[in-house]
């Protein structure tokens, strides 16, 4: 289990790492990945801001929050950091296009980015300070994911976004507020009381899943503020007998929370960016199917059955909604329905799911194909670097099978240009090519920006 050395706690070691971090300590590959994930999350927030759940979150923030200096991206609104972070975090996780952790199940961007930007604007922090906070926040989320998943999800049914993200939001806030170590440790300890969110939405639906990121952002900022005012918490919040790890997991490891901090970047090893608007676990199967399409001659009408070989988490997380979803969350999490969309339409982008929703998920061709899809456990897919298998049985008797690694994951990465193409597409449709171009330039030069006002102003309109 590798408890922290000496008298230090994991929270103390994470706090020391974050508060002492300098840009010179971070390798160029990790810095660039942080910037690309920042762009990816900005695109998610502004492109999804007018969906129903982000609209509700924004209405709540306006009605119950207070005026401030932090931008609600995609609007002219300026609110206090906690309220803006809640609205932005919810928007950034509202349509399954935010980043994730490959083999370390997490969603870092939708919590770390809105927390960092909201607090940076409130404090007037520089781009360099914001880049440091983003880096530490991303690393914290992924280390928590390595420590806790898949047990946190499969065994206990918690949703990792809020459970992990609230700690990163608290630590990010402390960095940007120049907190001392005692305050940072207390902020992490208090964040443990804000951690939560279940995955029952994968079983029976509901939009609350979209708000888990916003709740995590708000809880993390609140935790840091309470610590700054003097509220204390247990320094052994992670590894203690009644701490986060034992409360949220059947099986866990303490070591990733304290070993090789600053010398090994778990974020670079596990961070992944989605090209498609569905749960990332199914993206392995998209890649496997695309491999079959590229190498064999067949059409959708030739397919008798589709078997998706899965790791255990995919069976639980994506196998409960069934082949005939009734809402958009169900469609994006249903392995059967999403795979049928891939086979019949060749699409799993934002527009494809919105089109399906407008048709009440009643396309007869997609529905008939979804009925031919089934999931099964596959030991080859349940490894340290998970994957997905697609096996097609064709009407002419052929059986075709392939393994695939999700496009955008470290085993099958999107190029930098691929990430930027996604960004320009999502941002350009509402804000135009010039805003997309200028925002990319600013983010890629983040360490030299005096503050974030120029970046957020680009998106200060409906």
How would you describe this protein?
The protein has 462 residues and is of the alpha+beta class. The protein folds into two domains: 10-275 and 425-457, 2-methylcitrate dehydratase PrpD (Orthogonal Bundle); 280-404, 2-methylcitrate dehydratase PrpD (60s Ribosomal Protein L30, Chain: A). It has 21 helices and eight strands. It has helices spanning 10-20, 28-47, 52-64, 81-92, 109-123, 127-148, 151-155, 160-176, 181-191, 201-204, 208-229, 244-248, 266-270, 283-295, 312-318, 328-333, 335-345, 350-358, 364-370, 416-444, 453-457; strands at 67-71, 78-79, 100-101, 271-272, 303-310, 373-377, 388-394, 399-404. A four-stranded mixed beta sheet has the order 6-5-7-8. Strands 1-2 form a two-stranded antiparallel sheet. Helix 5 (109-123) runs parallel beside helix 8 and helix 8 runs antiparallel to helix 9. The longest helix has 29 residues, at 416-444. The protein is globular. The N and C termini lie far apart (50 Å).
Task: Note the topology.
Blueprint: H1 10-20, H2 28-47, H3 52-64, E1 67-71, E2 78-79, H4 81-92, E3 100-101, H5 109-123, H6 127-148, H7 151-155, H8 160-176, H9 181-191, H10 201-204, H11 208-229, H12 244-248, H13 266-270, E4 271-272, H14 283-295, E5 303-310, H15 312-318, H16 328-333, H17 335-345, H18 350-358, H19 364-370, E6 373-377, E7 388-394, E8 399-404, H20 416-444, H21 453-457
Parallel strand pairs: 5-6
Antiparallel strand pairs: 1-2, 3-4, 5-7, 7-8
Helix pairs in contact: 1-9, 2-4, 2-6, 2-20, 3-4, 4-5, 4-11, 5-6, 5-8, 5-11, 6-8, 8-9, 8-11, 9-11, 17-19
